[in-house]
């Protein structure tokens, strides 16, 4: 069946649609404030003139191409197209600013290829078995998963646990603004009708990671003189040493990302943050830690592989169960329904030619993207040669245009400006941004899951630890906290010892 799918997907017209989809997805993905989900949504009306197989083959190219476009802007401009690329900004942008932009983009392209190819193979051969995994997760399991992500991220990404927790709490606070979905009560809206629906994740993401970076660079323009000629220098491929360094992270990221494709937690945000946190925790145990000012290749490789592994599995969950586990998958579900097709277990029997051609197109899209993006890595990196005053003013303009295009409200532009100033203050005083973003992304999931669990148990808190999955998650969390405390105590003791030796000398 898969071979028949390749026969259909490799027909000249369908192959052309894959290539067009990859190019369009990448082009939309590199625009600040937009992303892969926006690319699919914008192109949805344009595909109704095509037959269903050609339309969804094109969508697969747009989907995966948009993800790479998201990562491209996250690495080069610190401006992720959507939340799934946030984790790639932390080390990827540092690599770009230290003259390793082509290598960072090559790392992202190879990681996306590995994660996508592995997930596509698993979707083809193990989709029914893995789909059953999603039924084992209830509200208590989701809450445990969110709590694990909160603690792991806030304790790892900052040298100060206090600053990490403060950033996390700020993100959770933003997530609670708006009308409570259960009681209908206004929360932290200050009576402003514009806040009744809450603050958009897109607005917060663009303000914190893009506009905040613009303000920070502008505030230090006279102090920091960057040599633009060397920032994007280098080869658009990885040396053997770099490949060897990134390979374990690609593998770990792929393993972390695979299960999340069939667990409806909102997309690839959670696994990318978990993959980043895992690599940072492992890096602290090395003799020569790589995370920091220069950028660690493992800190970019793992989130990229995790994000694309999740995406491939999410498409499998959509086809096999009719379960959209991300915003883009939800848009794809709407597209299926526009053609009168209902994804689910019967789809493989009723429309086998469509399903297997679409699955085959996943493999083709991955290969096309690898061949398109590796040679163009150095070309994309030349965006960094634009003088700062042009580059960052352009980013600020596109931030405003992207937010206004998604909402059409002046209030959101004012909110963008206000949160951008907060981001400047956080950068100035060393508060990490990752806990804020993960608090914003997972806050609603944690709150809803906690409420649902307590409602179903009539207020009995023991339901939160009533299943083997929750026991496992909390046990891993306890081990993680213990290791973090021991590492911090040893680091503090080593620091005091070196100070005493200096005083004695």
Automatic annotation (TrEMBL):
Instruction: Kindly indicate whether the keyword Membrane belongs to this entry.
Output: yes
Mark the transmembrane ranges: 12-34, 54-76, 104-127, 133-153, 160-179, 199-218, 317-336, 356-376, 383-403, 409-426, 433-451, 471-489
Which InterPro entries does this chain map to?
DUF112_TM (IPR002823)
| Pfam families in the record | TctA
Q: Which residues form the DUF112 domain?
A: 15-438
Q: Which UniProt keywords apply?
A: Membrane, Transmembrane, Transmembrane helix
Q: Is Transmembrane given among the entry's keywords?
A: yes
Which superkingdom does the taxonomy of this entry point to?
A: Bacteria
Name by which UniProt lists this protein: DUF112 domain-containing protein
Originating species:
Corynebacterium deserti GIMN1.010
